[in-house]
Design goal:
286 residues, alpha/beta, Rossmann fold, four-stranded antiparallel β-sheet, 30% helix
Length: 286
């Protein structure tokens, strides 16, 4: 049976392309562009609060090693354009820009993007920074490569987000933004680790959904208004499901490796590690 031909632009992307005022920033002055306006999601509020302290996380000390890994796997010289989805404070984008890559970082959090802007100025590099939900992002040009790392948008669910549709939309948007043959690196959460961590009581208490591998948990952070407790949802994945989702969105997966932030390696994922890493490329034409 012949495989249905995938449209290069889905109906929801066509809708957002007509409704959103999309800008492209060039040059060496890092500024922030708002791609679409929407009410704040819980993850946006969480990362706005966490942004000033994000670089205190121990795994950020491995940024240069991670960028070495990225460059080796992408196989592209400096001068190529890379889309960094869920760029956060820009730690990967800034290091890649230092090495000559043309970087566009997308993030839902104004706070994280502001930290990226300030860090890029200190580093003396240019970044194209775009404030957008990755589910809604759309560009008027194509990129040579893409990365989505360290829980960057993918697998982070809002209260009403569908556990499947949310991440399929992100993968579709990334595929549409890439040139044919472009490499893509995705780091996300290891569903096996989540399944091994929780028990039947956690399922009854709605801390974990065994059907979708979605964990619901709380985090307390200091905000300008005082301490706040955030109720958050994040989804785990097994490798076979990720490979299928990637293929449905026009990617061919080359490698599946262990991918916990700060400890990337070219080995099969450990059952108990937090992350999983995929190296793929966009197949076919537009």
């Amino acid at each position: 049976m012949a495989k249905p031909k995938r449209s290069s632009v889905s109906p929801f992307l066509q809708e957002f392309a007509t409704q959103c005022n999309v800008f492209s920033i060039r040059g060496c002055d890092p500024r922030i562009t708002v791609m679409n306006k929407r009410d704040k999601s819980i993850w946006e509020e969480y990362f706005d609060a966490h942004a000033p302290d994000y670089m205190d996380n121990s795994f950020t000390r491995a940024t240069k090693d991670e960028v070495n890994f990225i460059i080796e796997e992408l196989g592209l010289p400096g001068g190529n354009s890379i889309l960094d989805v869920g760029c956060g404070t820009g730690r990967h984008s800034i290091e890649l820009a230092k090495r000559g890559y043309i970087m566009t970082g997308v993030d839902i959090s104004s706070g994280m993007l502001e930290e990226a802007r300030k860090a890029a100025e200190v580093a003396g590099v240019g970044l194209n920074l775009v404030k957008s939900d990755a589910v809604q992002m759309v560009f008027d040009h194509k990129f040579d490569a893409a990365v989505c790392l360290c829980e960057g948008a993918f697998a982070l669910l809002g209260e009403s987000d569908d556990a499947y549709d949310h991440d399929m939309r992100i993968l579709n948007n990334i595929a549409v933004a890439l040139k044919p043959g472009a490499p893509f690196i995705l780091e996300t959460l290891n569903g096996l680790q989540k399944a091994r961590h929780f028990n039947n009581d956690d399922v009854k208490n709605r801390k974990f959904d065994p059907l979708t591998l979605v964990e619901t948990f709380t985090m307390e952070l200091e905000t300008p208004e005082g301490k706040r407790v955030f109720t958050l949802r994040e989804r785990g994945y097994i490798a076979s499901e990720l490979i299928l989702m990637m293929e449905l969105n026009g990617f061919s997966v080359k490698h599946v490796w262990g991918g916990t932030a700060g400890n990337w390696r070219r080995e099969i994922p450990d059952m108990d590690e937090i992350g999983i890493l995929l190296v793929a490329h966009k197949t076919g034409g537009e």
